[in-house]
Amino acid sequence: MFSSIGMTALIGMISHLFFIYVTWRVITTINIDPLIRKGRETEARVLIILVAIFIGTGVSRFFLDFIQWSQDLLYLF
Q1: How far apart are CA 41 and CA 3, in angstroms?
Q2: What pLDDT, on the 0 to 100 scale, is given for residue 38?
Q3: Are residues 20 and 8 in contact, defined by beta-carbon separation less than 8 angstroms?
Q4: Which residues cross the membrane (predicted)?
Q5: Where along the chain do its domains lie?
Q6: 51 membership: H or E segment, kind and range
């Protein structure tokens, strides 16, 4: 039982990190330089990181929930 909980936690952590990384890579391809004021590059980078965490976590949560729901379909029949 505890190994199942540990495996679920590990998969969740890896999923979150993977989707945060993918989201960060996608966001950094967008040219936001015209929107950044001079001297505010650090704040813009922090904002990009926070947005990547927000979106990546949401996408990861969706996939993890979808996998869990598909496994729970067995109890329907």
Answers
A1: 44
A2: 86
A3: no
A4: 6-24, 44-64
A5: 1-75
A6: helix 41-72
Structure tokens at 70: 């598909």
Cα dihedral: 17, 23, 24, 25 (round 10): 110
Q: Which amino acid is at 5?
A: I
Residue 24 buriedness (CB in 10 A; 0-12 / 13-18 / 19+): middle
Instruction: Say how far apart CA 56 and CA 23 lie, in whole Å.
Output: 6
- Read off the pTM: 0.83
Check residue 35 and give its pLDDT.
81
Residue showing tokens 């979150």: 16
CB 55 within 8 A of CB 23: yes
Residue type at position 63: F
